[in-house]
Amino acid sequence: MTDSIAGSSPCVLLVDDEDHILFSSATLLRRASIRNVKTLSDSREVLRFLAGETVGVIVLDLFMPHVSGKDLLVELCRDYPQIPVIVMTAAHDLETAVECMKKGAFDYLLKPVENARFISSVTKALQIFTLKSQVAQLEQQLFTGRIEHPAAFSAMVGVSKKMQTVFQYCEVIGSSRQPVLITGETGTGKELLARSIHAVSGVSGKFVPVNVAGLDDNLFTDTLFGHRKGAFTGAEEARKGLIESAADGTLFLDEIGDLAEGSQVKLLRLLQEQEYYPVGSDIAKKSTARIIASTNRDVCAAVKQGTFRNDLYYRICAHRIVIPPLRERPEDIPLLLEHFLSAAARQLGKRRPSPSPQLIPLLSAYAFPGNVRELEAMVFDGVARHRSGLLSLESFREAISRESAASSGAEQEPGGNDFLGVQFCGTLPTLKEAETLLMNEALRRAGGNQGIASSLLGISRSALNKRLRKQD
Q1: Are residues 293 and 402 in the same domain?
Q2: How much is the pTM?
């Protein structure tokens, strides 16, 4: 039995009584980046092997001593229906082929098999096994509602149902080597989630992040693929690219929506062929890094506009994850607040302050356009200003007021009748009616707390109280 470098992916098991067939087939698969390959020359060991290993595909010879491939095929399809079995034999017999397919074989290959045909069949079988396993795992986790590896998501604080669903899906696709596209607004934690996926994958390689937004095509090529010595002026030493640094690990491409068109073509080839050429080299290198990409842009819109390649989009989002904005999961705010208060106190060398009871309602009523990152900045600023007693609301109110003023200025167009998403149709409300509507809405968002409502309106509490008394 010959072992490959063990990975988190299910192995391909080759069963044949001819050692030279096992050696050549295993070598061919490893060269095609299917690295977890194991071989058996004795068909009697197959069932015992399956009891202790996770096997994704079995390539089975039909005519072997001891237990024939035909008999073994029946047992495998009966006891291990989730594992695709590829029959590879020298029997040029249509009746035998039909019989094997009826018994449950995934494919029937005739020796000598063309290399491309063999690799294609094994790859497709592995994909089907992986998809079935992911569906089964996702169903189980959705029913149980459990996170199996909570430590992997410790940096992403979230107890809301939306975030728990995201974590469960990440666990399901963790062991897959297919690319992942993470989308979400700025500040939602896309890189943190990519690191979590890397953690649950169990791979041996490193997590290597790179922001591709600021890279032109030449810099992108050199950064990812590396170069040979003397490849261009100034290349005095050879340099390995980030793909090589992320071997058997994860390469995280941040802001992929801003990638230049020429670089998109090179990335597409990398994903399709799993190989690349260092600058100045005509010898291809194999990539064993998993690609996770992220963007805060609407990639579908970019595809329609022609600024992002359609084929790259479908290749990169074999798995797609959308991180919900903070305003859609307000139940996570108290936990995030506690997390950032502790982190800020630790980093600033201060005693952890106690938050005011009004702080959580104030934060929950705010839309957080900068999401979790904005909340973190608010908390660190508040702790930095803190002196004694309860954590002051003043810095939080100031930050909210500044952002609200900036948003209103940016969103209101000259001559337009749209203010902060409010459309005026038909008869305009009077100033008094508009004031009443604004105050009622602010009080609703603040849960009846006048101090918080006044902060949302940008006026003092006494001014709000005075206007409310006038209404009465």
Answers
A1: no
A2: 0.70
